[in-house]
Design brief:
Distance between the termini: 86 Å
Strand content: 5-15%
Structural class: alpha+beta
Order of helices and strands: EEHHHH
Strand order of the largest sheet: 1-2
Oligomer: single chain
Number of helices: 4
Number of strands: 2
Number of domains: 2
Length: about 140
């Protein structure tokens, strides 16, 4: 037994001018009719492919990429989705939730303090190495 399926997104629009002869400059910006039909085989599409297909449809009907992304993110980060599920998405895409920013900031401060301590210890024990040939100064004799 074979299984065939197709998904379709269809958009039909007509523009009827209502400016009885005030000039054609406004009417030039609109097409009198628009028809879009996007189809794809649906038998083996996964969720990401469906979203990609719907993104193409939304672009065709005039949505901006920013509003499409915002709409997709609102499916994950709204009050009806459990926090555990939201955190899974954050982990998958390396995102930080607002609630975790203070903890991240403290981690960065601690890391920066450790780096400064290691760097100070390195300079104390090894000094600084010359960056360009001829910059080396013998600190004991003051000779380059």
């Amino acid at each position: 037994m074979t299984y065939e399926a197709e998904v379709q997104f269809k958009f039909d629009a007509t523009y009827t001018h209502s400016y009885g002869g005030f000039g054609s400059s406004i009417e030039d910006d609109f097409l009198p009719e628009e028809h879009y039909k996007i189809t794809a085989p649906a038998a083996d599409l996964n969720a990401k492919q469906y979203f990609k297909l719907f993104e193409k449809f939304m672009l065709c009907v005039g949505m901006t990429p920013a509003s499409i992304r915002s709409g997709a993110m609102s499916l994950v980060f709204n009050d009806y989705v459990r926090e555990e599920e939201q955190r899974k998405v954050c982990a998958e895409y390396e995102l930080t939730m607002d609630e975790d920013l203070e903890k991240k900031y403290q981690e960065w401060k601690e890391r920066d303090a450790q780096w400064a301590k290691m760097n100070a210890q390195y300079e104390k024990n090894f000094g600084s190495e010359p960056k360009i040939k001829g910059e080396w100064v013998d600190s004991a004799n003051g000779v380059a």
